[in-house]
Amino acid sequence: MKIIYIVEDHEAIREGVAKYLRMSGYETKTFGTLAEAKNAFEKMEPDLLIQDVMLPDGDGFTFVRDIRMSSDCPVIFMTARITESDRIFGFELGADDYITKPFSPKEMVLRIEAVFRRVDAASSPVVSSVDVSVWMLDGSVMKMNDTAHQLLIDGSIISLTVAEWKVLGYLARNAGSVVSRDMIIQKCFGYSTDSYRRVVDTHVKNLRTKLGDAREWIETVRRYGYKFIGVPAGCKDGTVEA
To answer: Where is the Response regulatory domain (predicted)?
Structure first.
């Protein structure tokens, strides 16, 4: 059974969400402060963290930023902060989703299920004769191991979040073609609303930051989307060599 941590200072919301999630088959642990959540997180990581932003002993954005230094635990922000800038900032910190109050418990469960589907898809072996794709660009080599969820560029391992891996993988599978933001949203995240187009830009921005000098592998097509420009080089075996 998957364990979900809920960090929310409003008791009615916290316990209401927890009750509905337990009815949906999840184990939950609830916390009213960041200090309590931090203590629990250090002892055991959950399968998912539902995080409020405004808490009596700090803000959830800072808490998630600190978590991301050492953990890839999926995160859903649950907050009354509804501006686009807040939502974008949440995704820049590595959140997997962002849900604003008020919301229905059913919507929360659907969002959670969508996150777990993406996590499971990223961690499950891919049924393919070749699990490693190799790309070339101006003498640099990028290797993507779908089974191990591992990315190497010129021998250096690059750590990506589940969302970033999904975006990069989708762009690579459509190498040489321009992919719209709407297609990325639908294929990688299962959303269709216009409000999530900026989220794609945020994930690509984070990807480029992590890729460093290899950021040029992803081109921006103004007013439309993105294009992966690496050239497939094939793969001789099913392993990634560092």
So the answer is: 3-116
Composition of the chain by helix, strand, coil, percent to 5: 45, 25, 35
SS3 state of residue 222 = coil
Residue 92 corresponds to which amino acid? E
Q: Which residue has the tokens 């399968």?
A: 47
Closest-CA residue to 180 (of 164, 162, 194): 194
Question: What are the extents of the domains in the chain?
Answer: 3-123, 132-232
CATH topology of domain 3-123: Rossmann fold (3.40.50)
Burial 66-77 (b: 16+ CB within 10 A, else e): ebeeeebbbbbb
29-34 long-range contacts, Cβ below 8 Å, gap at least 24? 29/3, 29/4, 29/5, 30/5, 30/6, 31/5, 31/6, 31/7, 32/8, 32/56, 33/9, 33/57, 34/7, 34/58, 34/60, 34/63
Task: Give the right CATH number for 132-232 from 3.40.50.300, 2.40.160.20, 1.10.10.10, 1.20.1510.10.
Answer: 1.10.10.10
pLDDT tens by residue, 141-180 = 888 887 677 788 888 888 887 788 889 989 998 999 999 9
Euclidean distance between CA atoms 15 and 19, whole angstroms: 6
Q: pLDDT (tens digit, 9 = 90+) per residue, 116-131?
A: 887 776 555 444 445 6
State both tokens at 31: 């916390």
User: pLDDT, tens digit, for every residue of 174-197?
Assistant: 999 999 988 888 888 766 555 566
- Cα–Cα distance measured from residue 74 to residue 11, given in angstroms and rounded to the nearest whole number: 23
